[in-house]
Specification:
The protein is α/β, with parallel strands linked by helices. Helices cover about 35% and strands about 20% of the residues. The chain has one domain (about 5-225): Vaccinia Virus protein VP39 (Rossmann fold, 3-Layer(aba) Sandwich). Strand 2, helix 4 (about 60-65) and strand 3 form a beta-alpha-beta unit.
C-alpha cells in the first residue's frame, strides 16, 4: 500500500463514528472515559462485548457481528490503515454492533475494566517463532495475565491460526498451566460438522488463500480460569 493511500485511509478513519484512535497517553490515562463504559458510551446497549486482537482488515470482526447481531464486537489493531476496510464496510451496511480501536494490545488493560469483556478472539497472529520474540506472542503467559484482568469469569478465548507452531505452543502452555481447553483441532476444516460454525463460516482474505493451497487451519477454544 502506498503512503498516499495510507494517509487517505488515516484521514478517513478520523471521520468514522465506529473508530476510536487514542494516543498512547490517552489510552494509558483513560482520557476518553471508555474504560468500563464501552456499553454505555460506545455501543449504547448492554450486550456482551467480544474483542478481536490483531484484527487486520477487520473481516473477522465484521463477519462475527453479522452472525451475532445480539453481541458487540471490537476489532483492535495498531495499524489503522488495515482495519479501514472493515470500519468502512460496517458503516456502509449500518452495523451498529461493531467498532474498531487503534491501539497496542499491550495497552488493553488500560482501555477495559475488570469483567468488561466476554470473549477474546485471536485470529492469525504473527507466531513470533524466534525465541527473542516470545514476549510478543499473543498467547504467552504475560498476555494471558492481561486478558484475565478484563475478561469475565469463565470468559472464552479463541485462537484461530494457520501456524502449527502457534497451535502446538498454545496447547502446551494451556496444559502446563492446567487451564480448561473446550475445543482444539489442528485441521478445523477437515472435521466436517464437528467444527464450530463461527470458525468455518467466516474467513479472512488470506485464510481463503491458505485453504486454496490446502494449508491447514487450526483452532482452540479455551478459558483462563485455573
Amino acid at each position: 500500500m502506498g503512503s498516499k493511500n495510507k494517509l487517505k485511509r488515516f484521514r478517513e478513519n478520523e471521520t468514522f463514528t465506529n473508530v476510536i484512535q487514542p494516543t498512547r497517553e490517552e489510552a494509558v490515562n483513560d482520557d476518553l472515559n471508555l474504560k468500563g463504559n464501552w456499553n454505555k458510551n460506545f455501543f449504547k446497549n448492554d450486550n456482551p462485548i467480544i474483542l478481536e486482537l490483531g484484527c487486520g482488515k477487520g473481516e473477522y470482526s465484521v463477519g462475527l457481528a453479522k452472525k451475532y447481531p445480539e453481541k458487540n464486537f471490537l476489532g483492535i489493531d495498531i495499524k489503522g490503515a488495515r482495519f479501514w476496510r472493515g470500519a468502512k464496510t460496517a458503516l456502509e451496511e449500518g452495523m451498529g454492533n461493531v467498532g474498531f480501536l487503534r491501539t497496542q494490545i499491550e495497552l488493553i488493560e488500560n482501555m477495559f475494566s475488570e469483567n468488561e469483556v466476554d470473549e477474546i478472539w485471536i485470529t492469525f497472529p504473527d507466531p513470533q517463532i524466534k525465541y527473542k520474540r516470545t514476549k510478543h506472542r499473543l498467547t504467552n503467559e504475560a498476555f494471558f495475565d492481561t486478558y484475565r484482568k478484563i475478561l469475565k469469569p469463565k470468559g472464552i478465548m479463541h485462537l484461530k491460526t494457520d501456524s502449527e507452531f502457534m497451535h502446538g505452543y498454545t496447547l502446551g502452555l494451556l496444559q502446563g498451566l492446567k487451564l480448561p481447553i473446550h475445543f482444539a483441532h489442528h485441521d478445523v476444516y477437515g472435521i466436517g460438522d464437528e467444527a464450530p460454525a463461527e470458525v468455518v463460516e467466516i474467513q479472512t482474505f488470506y485464510e481463503s488463500q491458505y485453504l486454496e493451497v490446502n494449508k491447514k487451519i487450526t483452532y482452540i477454544r479455551f478459558s483462563l480460569d485455573s
